[in-house]
Amino acid sequence: MCICSLLGTMSLMASCDGQLWSKALQGYGSALRQLASRKQDPSKLEALDEWFQKTEPKKDKAYLLKVLEWKLTRGTFRPGLLQKAQLNSEEEVKRCFQAAYDLLAAPDADGSKAVKALTSLQGVGPVTASALLCRATPQRVAYMSDEAVLGSGLFKRAADIKYDMKTYTRFNQLVQAKALELGNRWTGDQVAKALWTHVKLQGVQSPASSKVVGKPAAQAVRKSIKKK
């Protein structure tokens, strides 16, 4: 039985109300501007995000580095990660991208396997890999931000989030399943983006926060997902 919009802001993930989800997604620009306003250079995040949302995905080192810069600017900055990614050769980056896209080309493609193919690159974990693929195949790969993970109910606090393939696989299954439930051409990445927006606008940003977001929905969806 669907809880729908009766939950309001308590748990977007528990809702099957398409209008509620669309409203959350439409708030992305506002959430991004609020985040940018707290940065030393607000225009940098806004420009990077516009580039990320509108640029056709590529399969080269330049795209890898620019996406990583977007990720580090919009999310948690991790010193040395960009420099580590720069150590990858152009040939190796293109080889890993091709391997990932080959996996995604299959009719029953598992987005998590494609994400894993990119993690062999230096400085690229499941989160960065999902950012590199979500724009090209949002119906297979969703970007795993801390906020979207919290919104999905997988973890209670940002400090508890694990950035491994097991966590990514569970997260991607949850948001892709929610997209199928919503229908109307929703993708898993749109679900993840709506969750990011919803959580940001609620003010759930601190790694030390003990606020639970979306837990009831995640428990319900997990019943149909085998743990890996």
Automatic annotation (TrEMBL):
Is this entry keyworded Signal?
yes
Q: Which keywords does this chain's UniProt record carry?
A: Signal
InterPro entries according to UniProt:
DNA_glycosylase
The signal peptide annotation in the UniProt record is 1-18
Respond yes or no to whether keyword Cytoplasm is given for this record. no
Q: Output the PANTHER family linked to this UniProt entry.
A: AMUN, ISOFORM A (PTHR21521)
Protein name (database record): HhH-GPD domain-containing protein
Q: What is the lineage of its organism?
A: Eukaryota, Sar, Alveolata, Dinophyceae, Suessiales
